[in-house]
Amino acid sequence: MIEIKTAAYHRASFALALGSFLVFCNLYMFQPILPLMAEKFNASAIEVNWLLASSTLTLALTLVPWAVCSEIIGRRKVMMISLFLLPFTGMAMLLTDSLMMLTITRGVMGISLAGFAAVAVAYMAEEFTPKAFMIAVGGYISANSLGGISGRLYGGFVTEYWGLNIAVIGMAILSLFGAILVSRLLPKQQHFTPQKGQFRNHNKRVVGHLKQRELWLAMLIGGLNFALIVNLYTVMGFRLIAPPYSLSISLTSMIFLCYLSGTITAKLSGKWSQLYSPIKGMVLGTTVSAMGMWVAAYDSLYAMLIGLLLIGSGAFFTHSLAYAWVSQKAKTAKATATALYLVHYYVGGSLGGFYLIACWQYGAWNGVLAGGMILYGLIYLLCWRLQGYNSSPLK
Fold it and tell me: Structural domain boundaries of the chain?
């Protein structure tokens, strides 16, 4: 097993973080330019949201198949296949000239992204000691947010000043060199045993995970949490581009720097779980995130930025704890369990976009507040139910 503070730990954790960074750069590059795409294709905000939702939905739908594949051929092989597909699916976007075709291509990219996302945490759970795992998973999720921030900033600035084609080509080159580096650094698996007959038995394993209530409830928490964080930022982008603010795409994309607060809290979640109840941490993270949404209601750029910082801090703290919870509590087939968590996570993010954008279109930020509090209330209810199934008392 890989121990903390060893050379193998540093090499493996960096490789996994880099892979995660590349995945989320590619996934979210289009989020800040959705208003620009709406103008380019003369489409509504809900219609153009498919450019983001198509990739997250296909990612969600193919997570479990990738996880099942990893039970047969190994986690590392699946992760490397996934990363090396990214530059090719990225370049395919240059061949499109319509919103529909671009949406389809983004959907294909989601399939490519899913392989790495589905099994990275399972690799860590099998190869790292428990203490090293808890620290490494926090760093891995921090890389998620860093990748998301970087991809959004890159997409916003490069697309506005040099055009979408240059942005796509640059991201493809970065993805190729990053995949090569990960392949050189990531250690071979030492504690993986191939499981035969997975294509025949995976349905039984999926059902088994969903019947384990403490897993399923955490998955639902993850889905609702992600529906809020990613789409509150999307709606804020539309809010800042519209009058009276009328900010440019590049300036608006800088709001995603507020995700840095989530990078910090995701890293801290590993230490929290060693000292306190993860469920209590999920409640705390949800409360901080909800407070951020209300602070952002004030018509002040400073208040909006503070609100986004709080949303990012709380939501990533909750996500890190729920994600690690599922991986640790799964009795068998950990890759399938973590993939199922991510299915809920990304389906929540995809559907939440249409929900919160509709709240924005019909009720402005007051509509977002009303719609958002419904989702926050559901998270609190799920945390309460999760505590009921947890055998240890709330600390």
Answer: 7-186+194-389
